[in-house]
């Protein structure tokens, strides 16, 4: 049978699943393969694929958060590097002026001339330190230049390191996106291969044991700003699940919770893991209040909004969409209270 996380408020047609996957392709599943000729195994396989796609999507969200931070840090490092380079140029000019003023008219003017036009700060420092009379240069100027050049080197290294990290994260983003698409497409292939009777059985399994539309609360009392979050989330029940979506008519799990709490003026990170790590104050399951975020699986890959009475509202998966379910219908990993 489908795990409870796949259950929906109403019987959802498989056409909704096609919309949620966002991918339509030719049927390619082999009905003779193990696990495809039995509806329970089909249900389990589709469920697993959807969850694997969700895990990849949440990792994709995490990588986007990291990428945003890296880009901001890289901009700052490059600005700092430019500023430091200007300081090196200024220090070099001061040293050159000091040397020229000491060597003008002497036999060493040729060497000084070569040194004064050096475009390489490192070579300039090396030549300066080996001049027979370099110690005649004012010590403070030489020290200032050496310090500025060392600082520039550190900034150049830091900038290059961050640039390499950014490239690696961008590659991870591409890989996770490909994983989402591959898992979703594989699930879609299985769904496309089902006969009408099998589809009806799958729909019945998805609806089994779930709340009827009349049982879904129209509103839930909540404290303070949590009211706006709860009201928004409940209003989305029946909307589609689409990987990476955050409204207005389709959501993934962290897209729904982040948009719900945005209505209350609270900005949440855009991934389930980041929401658990920095989305609010940790609370125990026995202390849950409407509006709290509940997290599932290990590592965290799903998040829902608690609405009281042992229930959650969440964007479940492409076959279920946004629905109300039991708070323990999936393996719980923790909870936080935003705001």
Outline the structure in words:
The longest helix has 65 residues, at 39-103. With 339 residues, this protein is an alpha+beta fold. It starts with 13 loop residues before the first helix and ends with a strand. It is 54% helix and 10% strand. Strand 6 and strand 7 (322-326) form a beta hairpin. The chain has helices at 14-21, 39-103, 109-116, 121-130, 139-192, 196-207, 226-235, 253-262, 272-278, and strands spanning 240-241, 250-251, 281-282, 293-296, 302-308, 311-315, 322-326, 332-337. A 6-stranded antiparallel sheet has the order 3-8-4-5-6-7. The protein is built from 9 helices and 8 strands.
Helix and strand topology:
Layout: H1 14-21, H2 39-103, H3 109-116, H4 121-130, H5 139-192, H6 196-207, H7 226-235, E1 240-241, E2 250-251, H8 253-262, H9 272-278, E3 281-282, E4 293-296, E5 302-308, E6 311-315, E7 322-326, E8 332-337
Parallel strand pairs: 1-2
Antiparallel strand pairs: 3-8, 4-5, 4-8, 5-6, 6-7
Helix pairs in contact: 1-5, 2-3, 2-5, 2-6, 7-8
């Amino acid at each position: 049978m489908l795990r409870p996380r796949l259950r929906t408020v109403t019987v959802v047609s498989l056409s909704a699943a096609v919309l949620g996957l966002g991918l339509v392709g030719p049927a390619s599943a082999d009905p003779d393969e193990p696990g495809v000729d039995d509806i329970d195994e089909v249900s389990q396989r589709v469920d697993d694929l959807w969850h694997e796609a969700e895990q990849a999507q949440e990792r994709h969200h995490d990588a986007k958060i990291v990428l945003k931070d890296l880009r901001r840090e890289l901009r700052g490092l490059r600005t700092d590097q430019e500023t430091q380079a200007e300081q090196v140029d200024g220090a070099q000019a001061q040293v050159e002026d000091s040397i020229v003023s000491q060597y003008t008219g002497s036999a060493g003017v040729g060497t000084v001339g070569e040194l004064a036009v050096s475009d390489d700060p490192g070579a300039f420092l090396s030549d300066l330190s080996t001049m027979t009379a370099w110690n005649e240069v004012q010590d403070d100027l030489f020290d200032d230049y050496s310090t500025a050049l060392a600082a520039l080197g550190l900034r150049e290294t830091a900038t290059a390191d961050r640039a390499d990290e950014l490239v690696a994260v961008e590659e991870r983003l591409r890989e996770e996106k490909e994983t989402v698409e591959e898992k979703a497409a594989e699930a879609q292939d299985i769904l496309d291969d089902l006969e009408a009777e099998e589809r009806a059985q799958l729909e019945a399994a998805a609806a089994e044991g779930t709340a009827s539309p009349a049982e879904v609360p129209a509103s839930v009392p909540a404290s303070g700003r949590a009211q706006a979050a709860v009201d928004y989330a409940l209003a989305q029940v029946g909307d589609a699940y689409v990987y990476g979506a955050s409204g207005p008519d389709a959501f993934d799990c962290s897209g729904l919770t982040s948009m719900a709490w945005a209505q209350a003026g609270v900005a949440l990170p855009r991934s389930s893991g980041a929401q658990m790590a920095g989305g609010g104050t940790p609370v125990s399951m026995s202390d849950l209040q409407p509006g709290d975020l509940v997290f599932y699986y290990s590592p965290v890959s799903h998040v829902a909004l608690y609405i009281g009475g042992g229930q959650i509202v969440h964007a479940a998966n492409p076959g279920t969409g946004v629905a109300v379910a039991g708070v323990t219908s999936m393996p719980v990993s923790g909870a936080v209270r935003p705001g």
